[in-house]
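Re: that chain you flagged

S.,

Sorry for the slow reply, it's been a week of failed gels. I finally had a moment to sit down with the sequence you sent. For the record, here it is as I used it:
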Amino acid sequence: MAGWDVHTHLIPPTVLSAAHRGEFGLSIHSGSLVVDGQRLPLRRLADPAALLHWVAEQSLDGAVVSVPPPLFRYDAGIEWAELVNQGLRELATPQLRVLAHLPLLDPAAPSVAAGLAGEGVFSGFALGTPSYAGLDPVWRVLDAVDAFTLIHPGNSDDKRLDSFYLSNLLGNPYETGVAAASLVFADVPGRFPGIRFCLCHGGGVTAAVAGRWQRGIDTDRPGIEPVSLPVIEALRRFYVDDLVHDDAVLELLNETFGPERVLAGSDWPFPMGSDGVSAARSATVEALTRPLAKEVAAW
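Prediction finished late last night. Pasting the structure tokens below so you have them in one place:
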């Protein structure tokens, strides 16, 4: 066996049940889950057996599962997070490790994170890319439990990206870059070194603009406060998946983050994912994503 795929998606069964009941504004239409106007085809996203088939086909030990980005829904509150996490618990098996969903912008998020970390079920957390301002109480909890924390882009609000599938082709890499910049410039990697952040899609634009970020620090650009780590050192505290579809970019990831920080991730089952995973980069995932079982108080 070769290791683990760090970046796969499933729709939790509790979400499907709620959609069939017409709850939480969800519905099922023509074989798709309709979420806030977005359609998620159900065929493989609703089929854990299909993901296990992928795992066997790739000769992997297992896969790390997070919800598809349309299910982040940070305006939906605690009840939505509870529904999603109950479904993730039902998906968890020795071959499918699950990343918990947090009501990230709710004041209760730190206490929710603390509770989930102590269950021994979840292998970390998956976060979207809203504003991270004011999240130090969440970072303290994740730091205390050394949480693996996958950063996955949500939707970009830029309407110029509505054409040519640019919402994905440019929007996703941009959103991940914004998230990484928000963490770097708020000194989160320096202040909370226990959090094991992993940026999806090779970190998006992050590696390409890291030098520009450092130049902004060096020249005291407006709005930049002192940070404890140079940009390159901060980035070397992140992990990224290797889903970049370009060998030259993969070399840049190795140079920027360090080859030991580049993990195998497929984005299964989405069309923009990969057709296979690297055995060399999938072994590290196993140790990073063992289920959390550490009780911690929320500050």
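What I noticed first: The longest strand covers residues 4-9.

Talk soon,
D.
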